[in-house]
Write a structure and sequence with these properties.
seven-stranded mixed β-sheet, alpha/beta, globular, 391 residues, 21 strands, 13 helices, five-stranded parallel β-sheet
Amino acid sequence: MTKKIAIIGAGITGSVIARCAADIGINVDIFEKRNHLAGNCYDIEEFNSFTHKYGPHLFHTGNKKVVDFIKRFSQFIPYIHKVHAFVDGQFIPIPYNLKSLEFTHPSYLAKRISQKLIDEFGFGNQVSIYKLLDSADLDIKNLGDFVYKKIFFGYSSKQWGVKDPLSINKNVLDRVPVRINRNTNYFLDQYQFLPKNGYTNMLKNIINSEKINIKVGYNLKLPIDKLSSTNTQIEINGKKYDHLFYTGKVDELFSYCKGKLEYRSLNFVEDEFCFSSKRPSLALNYPENFDFTRIVDYSFIGIALGRNVDKSRIVTEYPGRYDENNPNFNEAFYPLFTKEAQEKYKLYEKLANSLSNTLTVCGRLGKYKYFDMDDAIGAALNLVSKNHIFN
């Protein structure tokens, strides 16, 4: 008898799982509460470019398995991502590096600090803000203090809604290290590119199978109360499924029985501009002085794809606490990385694991974890290789 699975969410995780299932003959029903596919990767084609409706998505990875999978579904164009931060009235390259040092310090001091960084950490390496702050050398320690206050503190405080960003999980601040070289590329991964026809098109191609049926704009109420560790099937809307893959908010799945998890959200304010001046990069970070965290110029996507672009979609991002009743912040984008939030999540994780016979909770919201696109694809492929329903 042909197996049948249900998937909640048509983002990267749900789409990859659906395709892997369809490829081996499993029937799939996908339920997506938004009115579009592709999850947070959703983009639209405008101004001869692509606007990413939930913030810029730049594919980068060192995982060949992930690259081989997605290249089945799109053509790709090489793209090297750059980011600048507005510091003391000028844009400097991010991550902070030896070239950034030349912008922010007098030349005599920049040369001295540069040599000390090379001597202590080695040219070509990268270090966390923590290592700079812990250095016994006063110049390096002062640099760490400068980078922390001017670049990390304001941005992270706004992004995560905390007074002290050092209270956040260490891995969050480590995502943007200080480099002991002059490399201004934001990512260092072996593979970096953009889908030629956009992410929405790529995700459509992934789920384009006669074995996959999708319903969008469908906010499904799951019969979670009827699940048990002894069940071999789950019934949804009168249909029986051999397994359910859930990529939504894990606390919502369990009716908030352990309390609500906290999430961070973003309000995207859109404008359009004709070209009058050239911005230095697609993403411009504003650590200080403003309520927003960054401004994104999506003309860079079209230009990278080799298109003629004479008008641009500009999006300013304002961070805030997720609140389903606030129209500006009613999308949950990021889990909170505080110790208290993570401990509450573990209670839900334990519940989900107890029902693993018929339920798999996955994806960024389900796992309450920050995933880059390649992480999400890799995790989905790994899940497929281990889940009993695929054997």
